[in-house]
Design brief:
The structure holds two protein chains of two kinds.
Chain A (H helix, E strand, L loop, with lengths): L3 H8 L2 E5 L2 H9 L3 E5 L9 H10 L1
Parallel strand pairs in A: 1-2
Chain B lengths: L1 E7 L6 H12 L4 E8 L2 H9 L5 H5 L5 E7 L2 H8 L3 H4 L14 H7 L5 E4 L3 H13 L3 E4 L6 H13 L4 E2 L5 E4 L2 E4 L6 E8 L2 H13 L4 E6 L12 H12 L5 E6 L4 H13 L4 E5 L13 E3 L3 H13 L11 H11 L8 E6 L2 H13 L5 E2 L7 E2 L10 E4 L3 H4 L10 H11 L4 E9 L8 H18 L5 E7 L8 H10 L3 E3 L2 H16 L6
Parallel strand pairs in B: 4-5, 5-6, 9-10, 9-11, 11-12, 12-13, 14-17, 14-18, 15-16, 15-17, 18-19, 19-20
Antiparallel strand pairs in B: 1-3, 2-3, 7-8, 7-10
Helix pairs in contact in B: 7-8, 9-12, 13-19, 14-19, 16-17, 17-18
The chains are: A alpha+beta, B alpha/beta.
Chain lengths: 57, 521
């Protein structure tokens, strides 16, 4: 059975880009499908709050 | 001179975007210095070092944007800080998609997605990667600074589900002709490659392209994958996939030496592989632990590319002759203006693998070097900022990239280092690398050429001659254009080679001749 990695090689990248927007732009310029997530640090970047949220979810 | 800053609450931008904003601001008339960064503790510390501090800065969070500007006068400062939007969004409206803030929204928007490309700060990277794996996506994890235990957990989770984690610290992949991260425009073809090093894969794929054939897929694994802590989980997944991939006829493995147990396991897997395997373990000084396995060992990236091309096409590419009369004449020419005290090579690398490979090549010629990333048998540089005798520096290492983009994007530190090396009258050769392709600097040669000319001038004013030798990794189809970049460097007096190995071999020859004491004949 084909794995998800086999599928990726067969189809080419259909990407969700989380972070540096340039990476999404270069994928798009090469004709790949890509969605950019405008990411920001969770919980305002407060490590204690992030840990607390992880435990709650 | 006056300094000021502005803080935008809850406005997050990535570091590459911010570097560009900072650079645009710095180039504005009347602005002496500018920084655009997020309010992390590290960044706030950097601002304090240049005298920018205050209660608002102390209170800023990693989600808050800080723009700090030092200007010639108050008028310029006010003009910049009161009208900051055009600096932040000079090309407003270029946004790729409607604003999407979460992974769930992205998947709803594009439900057939098959890979997540993640480049968030290291502290958040494993969390984001785990979420995307849970949604059944393969992961290309560009972020560094991910703890090894998180890497192992992510990779085990992925492997059990038929997914791959390329990374962490993965710079390059080419999947079905589409480059992810730092990648060059190369022809599609019969050679599949798996690599622990991004620049190593860039060099390999461009050499294959320039030899007239092409790449089926290039799969990055992250630099630690073949350590005994990770046991090659992503390498094995990639090897399985390339073995069943119809287009891949030859499989190439590029890495530093694997951990002892992992090497044994990998050798056993290569033994079972139905396709020919070329393996280049840079720095490995012994044979694989399993005897008579049907693989082709390569000592460097050029050899790996040559072997792969030969197997795939039946025609070996022309061999590099370091002892040819033409190169001999070039070496004599470079040495001819040098003074007796000029004897050392200083390598200032953007690509970590190029730094490593050059050390191996110099070592083969009996040249011991100092480095911030020393190969076994070489010396650890006491202070990465200061060269001693023969020194090769990996400027992409953590010593240099904390709170600033990689030297493949941001040339400023390499520029400073070139000028610093030029102060030392004992330096004979500067060895540089230039890497083209998607997401690299738009004009790597043009950005360093003025510093190279200045460095050569300094040596000339002392009565000597500074040889500058460079390799250029790229193809004519890359956004920067190979030929144009070569021309720019040659105009600055640089001896340009088409690969890092060749440039290092040339430097080794020059240094050996200098050691033998033959100057300027």
């Amino acid at each position: 059975m084909a794995s998800k990695l086999d599928e990726l090689l067969e189809q080419g990248p259909i990407a969700i880009n989380i972070g540096v927007q340039d990476f999404a732009e270069s994928l798009q310029n090469q004709g790949a499908e890509v969605v950019q997530v405008n990411w920001a640090p969770p919980a305002g970047g407060d490590p204690e709050l992030i840990e607390l949220l992880e435990q709650l979810l | 001179m006056t300094t000021g800053y502005i803080i935008r609450k809850n406005e997050y931008h990535d570091s590459v975007f911010l570097m560009r904003v900072g650079r645009r601001l710095s180039e504005h008339k009347g602005v002496l210095q500018a920084a655009a960064l997020m309010g992390t503790e590290k960044n706030k510390g950097l601002l304090a070092e240049i005298g920018v501090s205050g209660a608002e800065i102390s209170a800023a969070t990693p989600n808050d944007l800080i723009l700090a500007v030092q200007a010639e006068n108050q008028q310029t400062l006010t003009a910049v800080l009161e009208n900051i939007d055009p600096w932040l969004h000079p090309d407003a409206g270029r946004a790729i998609r409607p604003a999407i803030r979460t992974l769930d929204e992205a998947i709803a928007h594009q439900p057939h997605s098959n890979v997540a490309v993640i480049s968030v700060p290291g502290a958040y990277a494993a969390r984001e990667a785990q979420k995307t794996l849970e949604h059944g996506l393969n992961v290309f994890l560009f972020s560094g600074n991910v703890p090894v235990e998180s890497e192992l957990a992510l990779k085990e989770y992925a492997r059990e589900r038929g997914l791959i984690v390329m990374g962490p610290d993965c710079g390059t992949a080419i999947i079905r002709g589409i480059g992810i991260g730092f990648a060059n425009v190369v022809r599609r073809g019969p050679i599949g490659v798996i690599g622990a090093s991004g620049t190593g894969m860039q060099e390999f794929t461009t050499l294959v392209h320039r030899a007239g054939t092409g790449i089926s897929h290039a799969i990055g694994t992250g630099s630690r994958d073949l350590s005994d802590a990770i046991r090659g989980i992503s390498f094995l997944s990639a090897l399985d996939a390339l073995e069943s991939d119809a287009q891949s006829e030859v499989i190439v493995i590029l890495s530093k030496p694997p951990g002892a147990q992992t090497l044994e396991m990998l050798a056993a897997r290569i033994l079972r592989c139905r396709k020919p395997v070329v393996a280049c373990f840079l720095g490995l000084r012994k044979d694989l632990p399993v005897a008579n396995i049907p693989y082709y060992p390569a000592r460097n990236l050029d050899e790996a590319a040559g072997l792969a091309v030969q197997i795939a096409t039946g025609n070996p590419p022309p061999c590099f002759q370091v002892n040819s009369p033409e190169l001999g004449a070039l070496i004599r020419g470079e040495r001819s203006g040098m003074m007796p005290q000029q004897k050392y090579i200083r390598g200032i690398f953007a690509g970590g693998t190029f730094c490593y490979q050059a050390q191996q090549i110099l070592q083969d010629d009996g040249i011991v070097v100092n480095s911030n990333a020393p190969l076994e048998g070489n010396r650890q540089l006491f202070d990465p900022m200061r060269s001693v005798e023969h020194t090769l520096v990996d400027m992409g290492a953590d010593d240099f990239t904390a709170a600033r983009p990689h030297p493949m994007i941001d040339p400023s530190l390499r520029r400073e280092r070139i000028l610093a090396e030029a102060q030392d009258p004992q330096v004979a050769v500067l060895l540089l690398d230039f890497i083209l392709g998607f997401n690299s600097s738009a004009d790597p040669a043009g950005e360093l050429a003025p510093a190279i000319v200045e460095a050569k001038d300094k040596a000339r004013r002392r009565g000597g001659y500074l040889s500058v030798v460079a390799s250029l990794c790229g193809t004519e189809e890359d956004p920067q254009g190979l030929e144009q970049q070569v021309k720019r460097l040659e105009e600055a007096g640089v001896v340009v080679f088409p690969s890092s190995a060749r440039a290092a071999m040339f430097c080794a020859r020059v240094a050996t001749k200098l050691r033998e004491g033959s100057y300027g004949e």
